[in-house]
Amino acid sequence: RKVYVDAAEAALYKAGEKTTTSRIAIATGLTRKEVAQLRQLSDSDQLLGEMRYNRGVRVISGWRRDADFLDENGMPRSLPIQGDDARPGFEQLVSRYSGDMPCRAMLNELLQNGLVDQQADGLVALLSNAYIPQAREEEQLAILGTDVRLLLESISHNLDVAGTLPERRFQRKVCYDNLPPAVVSTFRELANSECMDLLLRLNTWLATHDRDSNPAPLQVIEPGRLRAGVGIYYFEEPVGSQTRRPEDGADNV
Q1: Pair 32, 6 in one domain
Q2: Which of the listed residues 7, 66, 79, 168 has the most CB atoms within 10 Å of its CB?
Q3: Are 30 and 5 in contact (CB under 8 A)?
Q4: Domain ranges, residue 153
């Protein structure tokens, strides 16, 4: 969304019009409040939000898959702040997976977002399988803006390589437009569960090949550095005579 706001502001400026929040809101379809927040979000704020997000993702991913931090049932165990070589704690987890971020800073980050709980005995328990920021609105905006950019880049890429199947990036959806509300509620829960399961499986696979998560064995295999991943989104909207299109109906993979 920040990309939309920046583009609209640049277009208004080029046309010689005032770049007010109201005009940008009209041009983008966003509310004035959203536009005002996004205009205050600097590039450095966005970069900082992405850095926090990436480090949080790596820590939670390592907690979920690294045997040093799992219990006898293969589940993430509650961790003491400081462990030892035989039974590492939260400090060792953060050191292993977050780079140079201080342990206390990471703990505060996860606590503020409701992703962990520090129990009365001092142990830190994982509450979520994924890093989803909740406490900082600017961080949410930064991450959502990144998601929009990545989706648009994939769409643009697919248009550029149209007809070249091996080069196309996966882009599919499934949609029906005559569903009762109760069914949609059930489907929403099903989609959340199934999509989360898929992302967790893909995360486990990617984490085993990522150089930051596995620095020693992978650094020398091949030069070069790429970023790759999969994003999934859910959509839902009312359908009436004004929103229904002739081609609507089943729009499947």
Answers
A1: yes
A2: 79
A3: yes
A4: 42-169
